[in-house]
From TrEMBL:
Pfam families: DUF202. The keyword Transmembrane helix applies. This is DUF202 domain-containing protein. Residues 52-112 form the DUF202 domain. It comes from the Bacteria. The lineage of its organism: Bacteria, Pseudomonadati, Bacteroidota, Cytophagia, Cytophagales. It is a multi-pass membrane protein. It comes from Pontibacter actiniarum. GO terms for cellular component: endomembrane system.
Length: 142
């Protein structure tokens, strides 16, 4: 047996009566609350964007590390498998390139991390201030 649901007409009438009950003052208060909520939502989006930036920086470091490790392993493979001096030299160049890549990636990670941290500390969220101002306006109005 299906539960009894109100008809569409009843839902429309209920919605219309709610609309009529809201006077201009209530609508203005709701709009203010919505503006505060929108500002809070922006703050959440900003903090999530900062987290995504930090994670992207870490992913980049991992990519540099993987590439450096692959270069070093390729160099070791050349040096172990081939006895010709040309291949030994190629292996040495690969190992050197891998080490340079690892150092470069780590330095880049540290610089970006510093930059991200500096930006995060310089950022001041404004939503709590707006929320406090709105709360004070409401208190003064009543």
């Amino acid at each position: 047996m299906k539960p009894h649901l109100p008809s569409r007409t009843l839902i429309v009438y209920a919605f219309m009566s709610i609309r009529k009950m809201l006077n201009r003052k209530a609508k203005a208060e709701i709009k203010k609350d919505l503006k505060v909520q929108e500002k809070l939502n922006v703050e959440v989006k900003d903090s999530l964007a900062m987290e995504r930036t930090k994670l992207a920086n870490e992913r980049t470091l991992l990519a540099y590390s993987r590439t450096a490790m692959a270069l070093v392993l390729a160099g070791l493979t050349f040096m172990k498998l081939f006895e010709d001096m040309l291949y030994q030299s190629i292996g040495f160049v690969f190992i050197l390139a891998g080490l340079v890549m690892a150092v470069f990636g780590y330095r880049r990670f540290c610089k970006k991390k510093e930059s991200i941290t500096r930006y995060a500390h310089a950022y001041t969220p404004t939503s709590p201030v707006h929320a406090e101002v709105t709360a004070q306006e409401k208190a003064e109005a009543t």
